[in-house]
Amino acid sequence: MEKSHQHQILVINCGSSSIKFALFELPKGDVVANGLADRVGTADAALDLVVAGHPLQITLAAQDHGNALREIIKALEANLGDRLEITAIGHRIVHGGEFFRSAVRINEAVVKQIDECSKLAPLHNPAHVLGIRTAFECFPGVPQVAVFDTAFHQTLPPHAFLYAIPYEYYETLAVRRYGMHGTSHHFVGMQAAAALGRPFESLSLLTAHLGNGCSVCAIRDGISMDTSMGLTPLEGVMMGTRSGDVDPNLHLFLQENAGLSLEQTTTMLNRKSGLLGVSGVSNDMRAVSAAAASGNARAALAIDLFSYRLAKGMLALAAALDRLDAIVFTGGIGENSAVIRSKTCAHLGILGIQVDDARNAVAGKSSEGIISPASSSGPQVMVIATNEEWMIARSTESLLSEDPPSASS
Ligand code: ADP
Protein backbone atom coordinates (compact mmCIF):
# COMPACT_ATOMS: atom_id res chain seq x y z
CA MET A 1 0.00 0.00 0.00
CA GLU A 2 1.22 3.50 -0.80
CA LYS A 3 2.73 5.21 2.22
CA SER A 4 0.75 8.30 3.21
CA HIS A 5 2.52 11.60 3.97
CA GLN A 6 0.04 12.46 6.66
CA HIS A 7 0.79 11.69 10.27
CA GLN A 8 -1.14 9.87 12.95
CA ILE A 9 -1.85 10.48 16.60
CA LEU A 10 -2.84 7.58 18.83
CA VAL A 11 -5.15 8.55 21.70
CA ILE A 12 -5.19 6.18 24.66
CA ASN A 13 -7.71 6.23 27.49
CA CYS A 14 -6.81 3.64 30.14
CA GLY A 15 -9.84 3.35 32.45
CA SER A 16 -10.13 1.31 35.63
CA SER A 17 -11.10 -1.86 33.75
CA SER A 18 -10.98 -0.80 30.12
CA ILE A 19 -8.80 0.77 27.46
CA LYS A 20 -10.40 2.95 24.80
CA PHE A 21 -8.27 4.11 21.92
CA ALA A 22 -8.54 6.01 18.64
CA LEU A 23 -6.00 6.50 15.89
CA PHE A 24 -6.44 9.80 14.04
CA GLU A 25 -4.92 10.84 10.76
CA LEU A 26 -3.95 14.49 10.94
CA PRO A 27 -4.49 17.17 9.76
CA LYS A 28 -7.98 16.10 8.60
CA GLY A 29 -8.86 14.07 11.67
CA ASP A 30 -10.03 10.88 9.93
CA VAL A 31 -10.36 7.95 12.35
CA VAL A 32 -8.11 5.18 11.00
CA ALA A 33 -8.87 2.78 13.85
CA ASN A 34 -10.66 2.81 17.17
CA GLY A 35 -11.88 0.37 19.75
CA LEU A 36 -12.32 -0.77 23.30
CA ALA A 37 -10.65 -3.42 25.43
CA ASP A 38 -13.25 -4.22 28.07
CA ARG A 39 -13.24 -6.08 31.41
CA VAL A 40 -9.42 -5.87 31.39
CA GLY A 41 -7.84 -8.09 34.02
CA THR A 42 -10.73 -10.58 34.11
CA ALA A 43 -11.21 -13.93 32.34
CA ASP A 44 -13.84 -12.28 30.06
CA ALA A 45 -11.55 -9.53 28.80
CA ALA A 46 -12.07 -8.82 25.09
CA LEU A 47 -10.86 -6.32 22.54
CA ASP A 48 -13.31 -4.97 19.95
CA LEU A 49 -11.81 -2.73 17.33
CA VAL A 50 -12.39 -1.34 13.88
CA VAL A 51 -9.29 -0.95 11.72
CA ALA A 52 -9.60 0.72 8.31
CA GLY A 53 -13.31 -0.06 8.35
CA HIS A 54 -12.93 -3.73 9.33
CA PRO A 55 -14.39 -4.91 12.66
CA LEU A 56 -12.20 -7.31 14.65
CA GLN A 57 -12.61 -9.12 17.94
CA ILE A 58 -9.71 -10.48 20.01
CA THR A 59 -9.92 -12.31 23.36
CA LEU A 60 -7.62 -11.02 26.07
CA ALA A 61 -8.24 -13.55 28.87
CA ALA A 62 -6.68 -12.38 32.16
CA GLN A 63 -4.34 -9.84 30.56
CA ASP A 64 -3.44 -6.70 32.53
CA HIS A 65 -3.61 -3.15 31.09
CA GLY A 66 -0.02 -3.37 29.81
CA ASN A 67 -0.62 -6.58 27.85
CA ALA A 68 -4.02 -5.39 26.63
CA LEU A 69 -2.35 -2.29 25.19
CA ARG A 70 0.36 -4.44 23.57
CA GLU A 71 -2.45 -6.47 21.91
CA ILE A 72 -4.06 -3.29 20.60
CA ILE A 73 -0.74 -2.14 19.13
CA LYS A 74 -0.09 -5.60 17.64
CA ALA A 75 -3.53 -5.54 15.99
CA LEU A 76 -2.82 -2.07 14.54
CA GLU A 77 0.57 -3.19 13.19
CA ALA A 78 -0.86 -6.41 11.73
CA ASN A 79 -3.77 -4.67 10.01
CA LEU A 80 -2.24 -1.38 8.91
CA GLY A 81 1.31 -2.46 8.02
CA ASP A 82 3.29 0.50 6.74
CA ARG A 83 0.17 2.70 6.83
CA LEU A 84 0.80 2.90 10.59
CA GLU A 85 2.78 6.12 11.14
CA ILE A 86 2.26 7.15 14.74
CA THR A 87 4.06 10.45 15.33
CA ALA A 88 2.63 11.21 18.76
CA ILE A 89 0.54 9.64 21.51
CA GLY A 90 -2.03 11.48 23.64
CA HIS A 91 -3.16 10.00 26.96
CA ARG A 92 -6.37 10.89 28.75
CA ILE A 93 -5.53 11.35 32.42
CA VAL A 94 -8.36 11.61 34.93
CA HIS A 95 -6.57 13.39 37.77
CA GLY A 96 -3.75 15.90 37.54
CA GLY A 97 -4.26 17.35 41.02
CA GLU A 98 -2.89 20.89 41.25
CA PHE A 99 0.18 19.96 39.20
CA PHE A 100 -1.28 20.51 35.74
CA ARG A 101 -3.24 23.47 34.35
CA SER A 102 -2.99 22.28 30.74
CA ALA A 103 -1.77 19.40 28.60
CA VAL A 104 1.90 18.53 29.09
CA ARG A 105 4.62 16.59 27.30
CA ILE A 106 5.32 13.42 29.31
CA ASN A 107 8.71 12.80 30.86
CA GLU A 108 9.72 10.84 33.97
CA ALA A 109 8.89 13.76 36.31
CA VAL A 110 5.38 14.00 34.82
CA VAL A 111 4.83 10.25 35.24
CA LYS A 112 5.83 10.61 38.89
CA GLN A 113 3.35 13.44 39.42
CA ILE A 114 0.54 11.47 37.71
CA ASP A 115 1.40 8.59 40.02
CA GLU A 116 1.31 10.93 43.04
CA CYS A 117 -2.27 11.83 42.09
CA SER A 118 -3.26 8.15 42.41
CA LYS A 119 -4.54 8.80 45.92
CA LEU A 120 -7.11 11.17 44.40
CA ALA A 121 -8.14 8.72 41.62
CA PRO A 122 -7.11 5.25 42.80
CA LEU A 123 -9.06 3.42 40.09
CA HIS A 124 -7.71 5.46 37.19
CA ASN A 125 -4.27 7.01 37.69
CA PRO A 126 -2.37 3.73 38.29
CA ALA A 127 -3.87 2.42 35.01
CA HIS A 128 -2.76 5.62 33.24
CA VAL A 129 0.80 5.17 34.50
CA LEU A 130 0.89 1.60 33.23
CA GLY A 131 -0.51 2.74 29.87
CA ILE A 132 2.15 5.46 29.54
CA ARG A 133 5.00 3.10 30.44
CA THR A 134 3.76 0.46 27.98
CA ALA A 135 3.38 3.05 25.21
CA PHE A 136 6.97 4.28 25.80
CA GLU A 137 8.18 0.69 25.62
CA CYS A 138 6.28 -0.02 22.36
CA PHE A 139 7.06 3.34 20.73
CA PRO A 140 10.44 4.49 22.05
CA GLY A 141 11.19 8.02 20.91
CA VAL A 142 7.59 8.86 19.99
CA PRO A 143 6.53 11.95 21.98
CA GLN A 144 3.68 11.46 24.43
CA VAL A 145 1.33 14.04 25.87
CA ALA A 146 -0.92 13.89 28.95
CA VAL A 147 -4.31 15.61 28.69
CA PHE A 148 -6.01 15.97 32.08
CA ASP A 149 -9.73 15.85 32.91
CA THR A 150 -8.99 18.22 35.79
CA ALA A 151 -6.85 20.78 33.89
CA PHE A 152 -9.68 22.88 32.43
CA HIS A 153 -11.01 23.43 35.97
CA GLN A 154 -7.72 24.69 37.41
CA THR A 155 -9.03 28.21 36.76
CA LEU A 156 -11.66 27.88 39.52
CA PRO A 157 -11.26 30.67 42.07
CA PRO A 158 -10.57 29.62 45.70
CA HIS A 159 -14.11 30.45 46.80
CA ALA A 160 -15.33 27.84 44.29
CA PHE A 161 -12.69 25.14 44.84
CA LEU A 162 -12.42 25.16 48.64
CA TYR A 163 -14.67 23.22 50.99
CA ALA A 164 -15.91 25.00 54.09
CA ILE A 165 -13.75 22.82 56.36
CA PRO A 166 -10.61 23.78 58.30
CA TYR A 167 -8.13 25.28 55.82
CA GLU A 168 -5.31 23.04 57.02
CA TYR A 169 -6.78 20.04 55.15
CA TYR A 170 -6.21 21.94 51.92
CA GLU A 171 -2.69 22.92 52.97
CA THR A 172 -1.59 19.49 54.16
CA LEU A 173 -3.55 17.07 51.96
CA ALA A 174 -4.74 19.20 49.01
CA VAL A 175 -8.35 18.48 49.98
CA ARG A 176 -10.30 20.69 47.58
CA ARG A 177 -12.68 20.49 44.64
CA TYR A 178 -10.93 19.55 41.36
CA GLY A 179 -13.76 18.71 38.96
CA MET A 180 -13.61 16.23 36.09
CA HIS A 181 -14.79 15.88 32.44
CA GLY A 182 -12.83 19.08 31.70
CA THR A 183 -11.85 17.94 28.20
CA SER A 184 -15.49 17.40 27.30
CA HIS A 185 -16.77 20.66 28.84
CA HIS A 186 -14.00 22.58 27.06
CA PHE A 187 -14.66 20.84 23.72
CA VAL A 188 -18.45 21.36 23.67
CA GLY A 189 -17.98 24.94 24.86
CA MET A 190 -15.75 25.64 21.86
CA GLN A 191 -18.17 23.82 19.53
CA ALA A 192 -21.05 25.92 20.90
CA ALA A 193 -19.05 29.08 20.20
CA ALA A 194 -18.38 27.94 16.63
CA ALA A 195 -22.08 27.10 16.09
CA LEU A 196 -23.14 30.49 17.47
CA GLY A 197 -20.49 32.31 15.43
CA ARG A 198 -19.06 33.93 18.60
CA PRO A 199 -15.57 33.77 20.14
CA PHE A 200 -15.41 31.16 22.92
CA GLU A 201 -13.64 33.79 25.06
CA SER A 202 -16.75 35.97 25.00
CA LEU A 203 -19.35 33.35 25.97
CA SER A 204 -21.04 32.54 29.27
CA LEU A 205 -22.21 28.93 29.28
CA LEU A 206 -23.56 26.13 31.44
CA THR A 207 -22.48 22.78 30.00
CA ALA A 208 -23.93 19.44 31.15
CA HIS A 209 -21.86 16.32 30.41
CA LEU A 210 -24.28 13.43 30.96
CA GLY A 211 -22.71 10.00 30.38
CA ASN A 212 -22.28 7.24 32.94
CA GLY A 213 -20.67 9.94 35.06
CA CYS A 214 -22.39 13.32 34.97
CA SER A 215 -21.17 16.84 35.70
CA VAL A 216 -22.04 20.45 35.02
CA CYS A 217 -19.64 23.32 34.35
CA ALA A 218 -20.02 27.11 34.43
CA ILE A 219 -17.82 28.67 31.74
CA ARG A 220 -17.32 32.45 31.75
CA ASP A 221 -15.38 34.05 28.91
CA GLY A 222 -13.89 30.70 27.92
CA ILE A 223 -12.77 29.82 31.46
CA SER A 224 -14.15 27.23 33.86
CA MET A 225 -15.43 29.15 36.89
CA ASP A 226 -17.08 26.28 38.75
CA THR A 227 -18.10 22.68 38.23
CA SER A 228 -20.17 20.12 40.07
CA MET A 229 -17.65 17.33 40.72
CA GLY A 230 -15.27 17.77 43.62
CA LEU A 231 -12.34 16.02 45.26
CA THR A 232 -13.61 12.86 43.56
CA PRO A 233 -16.18 12.19 40.82
CA LEU A 234 -18.87 11.41 43.41
CA GLU A 235 -19.86 15.00 44.21
CA GLY A 236 -22.54 16.90 42.33
CA VAL A 237 -25.47 15.78 40.21
CA MET A 238 -27.07 12.32 40.09
CA MET A 239 -25.38 9.76 37.79
CA GLY A 240 -25.78 6.16 36.54
CA THR A 241 -24.59 4.44 39.72
CA ARG A 242 -23.33 7.45 41.74
CA SER A 243 -25.51 9.38 44.15
CA GLY A 244 -24.04 12.84 43.64
CA ASP A 245 -24.50 15.14 46.67
CA VAL A 246 -25.82 13.59 49.90
CA ASP A 247 -25.77 14.77 53.50
CA PRO A 248 -22.13 14.35 54.64
CA ASN A 249 -23.45 12.74 57.85
CA LEU A 250 -24.82 9.77 55.90
CA HIS A 251 -21.78 7.58 56.56
CA LEU A 252 -22.22 7.94 60.34
CA PHE A 253 -26.00 7.48 60.19
CA LEU A 254 -25.67 4.25 58.20
CA GLN A 255 -22.89 2.99 60.44
CA GLU A 256 -25.01 3.52 63.57
CA ASN A 257 -28.34 2.41 62.14
CA ALA A 258 -27.53 -0.20 59.50
CA GLY A 259 -24.09 -1.39 60.64
CA LEU A 260 -22.46 -0.35 57.36
CA SER A 261 -18.70 0.23 57.41
CA LEU A 262 -17.20 3.38 55.84
CA GLU A 263 -16.14 1.27 52.91
CA GLN A 264 -19.59 -0.30 52.42
CA THR A 265 -21.28 3.11 52.35
CA THR A 266 -18.66 4.44 49.95
CA THR A 267 -19.27 1.48 47.63
CA MET A 268 -23.03 1.97 47.91
CA LEU A 269 -22.75 5.68 47.00
CA ASN A 270 -20.41 5.02 44.06
CA ARG A 271 -21.75 1.78 42.61
CA LYS A 272 -25.31 1.12 43.79
CA SER A 273 -26.92 4.57 43.80
CA GLY A 274 -27.99 7.05 41.13
CA LEU A 275 -30.35 5.79 38.41
CA LEU A 276 -29.67 2.20 39.47
CA GLY A 277 -30.35 2.74 43.17
CA VAL A 278 -33.53 4.77 42.76
CA SER A 279 -35.09 2.83 39.87
CA GLY A 280 -33.99 -0.65 40.94
CA VAL A 281 -33.92 -1.32 37.18
CA SER A 282 -30.56 -0.28 35.70
CA ASN A 283 -27.80 2.32 35.66
CA ASP A 284 -28.42 2.71 31.92
CA MET A 285 -30.73 5.57 30.97
CA ARG A 286 -32.09 3.66 27.95
CA ALA A 287 -33.29 0.80 30.18
CA VAL A 288 -34.65 3.18 32.85
CA SER A 289 -36.50 5.19 30.18
CA ALA A 290 -37.98 2.04 28.65
CA ALA A 291 -39.14 0.83 32.08
CA ALA A 292 -40.67 4.23 32.86
CA ALA A 293 -42.47 4.24 29.50
CA SER A 294 -44.01 0.86 30.30
CA GLY A 295 -45.36 2.06 33.65
CA ASN A 296 -42.57 1.35 36.18
CA ALA A 297 -43.15 4.04 38.83
CA ARG A 298 -39.68 3.82 40.39
CA ALA A 299 -38.05 4.21 36.97
CA ALA A 300 -40.21 7.29 36.35
CA LEU A 301 -39.20 8.63 39.78
CA ALA A 302 -35.51 8.09 38.95
CA ILE A 303 -35.92 10.17 35.78
CA ASP A 304 -37.70 12.95 37.70
CA LEU A 305 -35.00 12.94 40.38
CA PHE A 306 -32.22 12.95 37.76
CA SER A 307 -33.74 15.92 35.88
CA TYR A 308 -34.53 17.95 39.00
CA ARG A 309 -31.12 17.41 40.57
CA LEU A 310 -29.45 18.29 37.27
CA ALA A 311 -31.45 21.52 36.99
CA LYS A 312 -30.60 22.34 40.62
CA GLY A 313 -26.92 21.75 39.86
CA MET A 314 -27.12 24.08 36.86
CA LEU A 315 -28.92 26.78 38.83
CA ALA A 316 -26.31 26.59 41.59
CA LEU A 317 -23.52 27.04 39.04
CA ALA A 318 -25.31 30.02 37.51
CA ALA A 319 -24.00 31.84 40.61
CA ALA A 320 -20.56 31.77 38.93
CA LEU A 321 -21.81 33.67 35.84
CA ASP A 322 -22.78 37.27 35.24
CA ARG A 323 -25.06 36.40 32.31
CA LEU A 324 -26.00 33.27 30.39
CA ASP A 325 -25.66 32.92 26.61
CA ALA A 326 -26.41 29.20 26.24
CA ILE A 327 -26.77 25.89 28.01
CA VAL A 328 -25.31 22.81 26.33
CA PHE A 329 -26.27 19.15 26.72
CA THR A 330 -23.72 16.47 25.83
CA GLY A 331 -22.66 12.86 26.61
CA GLY A 332 -24.75 9.74 25.87
CA ILE A 333 -27.77 11.00 27.84
CA GLY A 334 -27.43 14.68 26.94
CA GLU A 335 -27.10 13.93 23.24
CA ASN A 336 -29.83 11.30 23.02
CA SER A 337 -32.54 11.80 25.64
CA ALA A 338 -35.13 14.38 24.61
CA VAL A 339 -37.07 13.51 27.77
CA ILE A 340 -34.20 14.39 30.13
CA ARG A 341 -33.50 17.63 28.24
CA SER A 342 -37.13 18.65 28.32
CA LYS A 343 -37.70 17.73 31.99
CA THR A 344 -34.49 19.47 33.06
CA CYS A 345 -35.27 22.64 31.13
CA ALA A 346 -38.76 22.71 32.65
CA HIS A 347 -37.05 23.52 35.98
CA LEU A 348 -34.91 26.25 34.43
CA GLY A 349 -37.61 28.77 33.52
CA ILE A 350 -36.14 31.21 36.05
CA LEU A 351 -33.11 31.51 33.73
CA GLY A 352 -35.39 32.28 30.77
CA ILE A 353 -34.78 28.81 29.33
CA GLN A 354 -37.29 27.59 26.74
CA VAL A 355 -37.32 24.43 24.62
CA ASP A 356 -38.99 23.90 21.27
CA ASP A 357 -40.47 20.37 21.42
CA ALA A 358 -40.11 19.71 17.68
CA ARG A 359 -36.45 20.85 17.69
CA ASN A 360 -35.76 18.87 20.86
CA ALA A 361 -37.16 15.70 19.27
CA VAL A 362 -34.69 15.88 16.38
CA ALA A 363 -31.77 17.46 18.26
CA GLY A 364 -28.40 16.58 16.88
CA LYS A 365 -29.87 16.37 13.41
CA SER A 366 -31.17 19.95 13.53
CA SER A 367 -29.10 22.94 12.46
CA GLU A 368 -26.32 23.63 15.01
CA GLY A 369 -28.16 21.51 17.59
CA ILE A 370 -30.18 24.47 18.88
CA ILE A 371 -33.38 23.32 20.60
CA SER A 372 -34.62 26.63 21.99
CA PRO A 373 -37.39 28.30 19.93
CA ALA A 374 -36.27 30.63 17.14
CA SER A 375 -38.37 33.33 18.84
CA SER A 376 -36.72 32.90 22.27
CA SER A 377 -34.98 35.98 23.63
CA GLY A 378 -33.47 33.90 26.47
CA PRO A 379 -30.31 31.78 26.46
CA GLN A 380 -29.90 29.29 23.62
CA VAL A 381 -30.35 25.62 24.50
CA MET A 382 -27.98 23.41 22.53
CA VAL A 383 -27.23 19.72 22.00
CA ILE A 384 -23.60 19.10 20.99
CA ALA A 385 -21.87 15.73 20.55
CA THR A 386 -18.74 15.49 22.64
CA ASN A 387 -15.55 14.01 21.23
CA GLU A 388 -12.95 13.76 23.97
CA GLU A 389 -10.60 11.61 21.86
CA TRP A 390 -10.48 14.19 19.08
CA MET A 391 -9.94 16.97 21.61
CA ILE A 392 -7.01 14.98 23.08
CA ALA A 393 -5.54 14.45 19.60
CA ARG A 394 -5.83 18.18 18.86
CA SER A 395 -4.30 19.17 22.22
CA THR A 396 -1.44 16.71 21.60
CA GLU A 397 -0.86 18.14 18.14
CA SER A 398 -0.91 21.77 19.24
CA LEU A 399 1.29 21.19 22.30
CA LEU A 400 3.93 19.40 20.20
CA SER A 401 3.88 22.07 17.51
CA GLU A 402 4.58 24.72 20.21
CA ASP A 403 7.13 22.46 21.96
CA PRO A 404 8.65 20.30 19.23
CA PRO A 405 10.19 16.99 20.37
CA SER A 406 13.76 18.04 19.56
CA ALA A 407 13.47 21.11 21.83
CA SER A 408 12.62 19.29 25.03
CA SER A 409 13.56 15.63 24.74
P1 ADP B 1 -19.47 7.14 29.13
O1 ADP B 1 -19.51 8.00 30.33
O2 ADP B 1 -19.15 5.71 29.42
O3 ADP B 1 -18.71 7.71 27.96
P2 ADP B 1 -21.79 7.65 27.44
O4 ADP B 1 -21.46 9.09 27.18
O5 ADP B 1 -21.71 6.69 26.32
O6 ADP B 1 -21.02 7.09 28.69
O7 ADP B 1 -23.29 7.65 28.03
C1 ADP B 1 -23.89 6.49 28.49
C2 ADP B 1 -25.32 6.84 28.92
O8 ADP B 1 -26.01 7.38 27.76
C3 ADP B 1 -26.10 5.62 29.37
O9 ADP B 1 -26.89 5.94 30.51
C4 ADP B 1 -27.00 5.36 28.17
O10 ADP B 1 -28.20 4.72 28.54
C5 ADP B 1 -27.29 6.77 27.71
N1 ADP B 1 -27.84 6.76 26.35
C6 ADP B 1 -27.27 6.37 25.21
N2 ADP B 1 -28.17 6.42 24.18
C7 ADP B 1 -29.34 6.84 24.72
C8 ADP B 1 -30.66 7.10 24.20
N3 ADP B 1 -30.94 6.92 22.91
N4 ADP B 1 -31.60 7.53 25.07
C9 ADP B 1 -31.33 7.70 26.38
N5 ADP B 1 -30.13 7.48 26.92
C10 ADP B 1 -29.14 7.06 26.11
Q: Which strands sit side by side, in order, in the main sheet?
A: 5-4-3-2-1-6-8-7
CATH superfamily of the largest domain: ATPase, nucleotide binding domain
Radius of gyration: 22 Å
Which fold does the CATH topology of the largest domain refer to?
Answer: Nucleotidyltransferase, domain 5
Mean pLDDT: 93
Distance between the amino and carboxyl termini:
32 Å
Principal-axes geometry comes out as globular
The second-level CATH architecture of the largest domain is 2-Layer Sandwich
Bound molecules: adenosine-5'-diphosphate
Strand content: 15-25%
Order of helices and strands: EEEEEHEEHHEHHHEEEHHHHHEHHHEHH
**Residues in helix, %:** 25-40%
What structural category characterises the helix and strand content? alpha/beta
- Low-confidence region ranges: none
The total strand number stands at: 13
Largest sheet: 8 strands, mixed
CATH hierarchy class name of the largest domain = Alpha Beta
How many discrete domains?
2
- Discrete helix count: 16
Describe this structure in words.
With 409 residues, the chain is an alpha/beta fold. It has two domains: 7-148, ATPase, nucleotide binding domain (Nucleotidyltransferase, domain 5); 197-387, 2-Layer Sandwich (Nucleotidyltransferase, domain 5). Helix content is 39%, strand content 20%. It has helices at residues 65-80, 108-116, 125-138, 158-161, 168-173, 182-196, 250-258, 262-271, 274-279, 285-293, 297-317, 331-336, 338-346, 357-361, 388-402, 405-408, and strands at 7-14, 19-26, 30-38, 46-51, 54-59, 86-93, 104-105, 144-148, 204-210, 214-220, 223-227, 326-330, 380-383. Helix 1 (65-80) packs across helix 3. The longest helix is centred in the C-terminal third of the chain and has 21 residues, at 297-317. The two termini are 32 Å apart. The site of adenosine-5'-diphosphate has 13 residues, from helix 10 and helix 12.
